[in-house]
Amino acid sequence: MILVTHNQHKFLEYEEIFLRSKIELEWYNYEYPELQSDNLKEIVEFSLKHVSRILNRPFFLEDTGLFIDSLGGFPGPYSSYVQEKIGNMGILRLLEGISNRNARFISLIGYFDGKNFYYFDGTLEGSISYSIRGKNGFGYDPIFIPEKYDKTLAEMSIQEKNSISHRRRALDKLLGYIKNSMESIK
Amino acid sequence: MILVTHNQHKFLEYEEIFLRSKIELEWYNYEYPELQSDNLKEIVEFSLKHVSRILNRPFFLEDTGLFIDSLGGFPGPYSSYVQEKIGNMGILRLLEGISNRNARFISLIGYFDGKNFYYFDGTLEGSISYSIRGKNGFGYDPIFIPEKYDKTLAEMSIQEKNSISHRRRALDKLLGYIKNSMESIK
Q1: Chain B residues with CB-CB distance to A86 below 8 A
Q2: B2-185 belongs to which CATH class?
Q3: pTM of the model
Q4: Which of A38, A63, A69, A150 is catalytic?
Q5: Chain A from 3 to 32: CB within 8 A of any B CB
Q6: Is residue B63 annotated as part of the catalytic site, yes or no?
Q7: What is the ipTM for the molecules in this complex?
Q8: Residue ranges per domain, chain A?
Q9: pLDDT per position as a tens digit, B144-179
Q10: CA distances to A15, A43, A117, A121, A161 from A1, in Å
Q11: Is the Cβ of B34 closer than 8 Å to some Cβ of chain A?
């Protein structure tokens, strides 16, 4: 299976999840164009179609956003850019004095089977912490506390994060779909 | 001359500038796709080519960003999205305790003459105020103080803003180009 991404952190997370499956994961390092949109589906669809014209075989790619309720869903689809520019300290500043810390990570995988396009999403509900905690993971992990936990994603091992993550949930749907379609061929 | 934009504020500003020229401005209200990029030129180029395939006659469109030095250029090309989500209060929060308030507006016009693509930029240097001031203009105008002024763009009349604005400067280059090419035809 080929993952197309320019983000090494993303590849490493997927690689760890794939270790426990019997499928081999290959990294195709390519920075594909992304559309500006409030809508993850529109963004992924555009990129998926673009890459499918270049890579003429099955692959998947994925876009993830952090959506913070009291900021109207910010930073949403622009999470990487916002992380790079204002960082986790910027997010904590924007939330100073705000008690509604509810947020969620949403990952959307786009999969091309060589012919058609498919979409699989995964969500992780949680809240934004009051300080930066933990050194694992990347991006917003040090300020995101998953529902039913009292630690941030960056205070978890990669295995623990991957057992509950948005990315893992989207991937499970993709792998379930592939398994089913293999079986239906037999 | 046709301006393609989905933003009414933008059209009204251009309309006021065109009043003083002898050229008529027509509004083509269309929300064209935009690319995610740090680079205004890449964004405008993509949209310009997209619209040129739909509108088979001369037009221009324009993208503007507010680039704040101490935030690494944030919000930059995502200025509209960031304005909608965290607003001017959000920007002031991000700059609390920060003394370097330097910022600039950059507008980039993309022009299609029916055959080729041209680009014209305009910059307005200034700084971010410590509070929201003024009711005119739109977007970041209430927190942007142009260089050599002590009021924000939102404390100016539309005529005063248009006499110095990034948008005006980019448009002057476009109109200068068109005038020259008309004369060279004669």
Answers
A1: 71-72, 74, 94
A2: alpha beta
A3: 0.90
A4: A63
A5: none
A6: yes
A7: 0.85
A8: 2-185
A9: 999 999 999 999 999 999 999 999 999 999 999 998
A10: 11, 22, 15, 18, 22
A11: yes
